[in-house]
Amino acid sequence: MEKSSGKKNTAILISGRGSNLRSLIKYAKKKKSLIRIVLVVSDNFSAKGLNYANKSKINNIVLKYSNRESFENRLLKSLKINNVDLICLAGFMKILSGSFIKKFKNPILNIHPSLLPKYKGLNTHNRAIQNKDKYSGATVHIVNKKLDSGKIILQKKVKILKSDSEKSLEKKVLKIEHKIYPKAIIKLLASD
Ligand code: GRF
């Protein structure tokens, strides 16, 4: 049997910087990776992350977000055309509807910069510092119709130091994100 035949066709959805996309591209290029990135979708024309897709010659599209229904219909079409088996949200700033999740049928993963269920939504680092938490971290979870609430696949902690600012904490957590996203994919797909 051909070794790469088990790879899942994966779409990465982004809205901005794309550092998690970059780490997933790096992982996908490994011989033993379990995914093949067949599509990158951005809802934002000026997302920096698109440069990583272009550099690696990965098929990428921008879908303008005027309203959710139209966006999701166009997205579903592109996913179907590209035979996508797995979606990874990587800094994608729009919320996907329950109806989209149902129609797509395959798993959708998201990475979130907090120790879920703590700090769903935005400004996670600031909230962790304000609350004088001892730890923060990152979580990869399955996307369901409730924001940042699906089954947790993998989570990793970092210590919050007294000297940490929102920026330094973001940097530390991001470093962890880049490590755990590929690991979470392996964990999810290994149980397939
Ligand atoms: C990351 O912190 C991710 O956890 C959150 O949005 C940020 C995206 O960063 N969902 P990048 O675009 O991957 O650099």
Describe this structure in words.
It is a single chain. The chain is α/β, with parallel strands linked by helices and 192 residues long. It has one domain: 3-Layer(aba) Sandwich (Rossmann fold), CATH 3.40.50.170. The protein contains six helices and seven strands; from the N terminus they run βαβαβαβαβαββα. It has helices spanning 19-28, 50-55, 68-81, 98-104, 124-130, 166-190, and strands at 8-14, 35-42, 60-62, 86-89, 108-112, 135-142, 152-159. The longest helix is centred in the C-terminal third of the chain and has 25 residues, at 166-190. The chain is globular and about 50 Å long. 5-O-phosphono-beta-D-ribofuranosylamine is lined by residues 14, 16-20, 49, 90-91, 111-113, 174, 177.
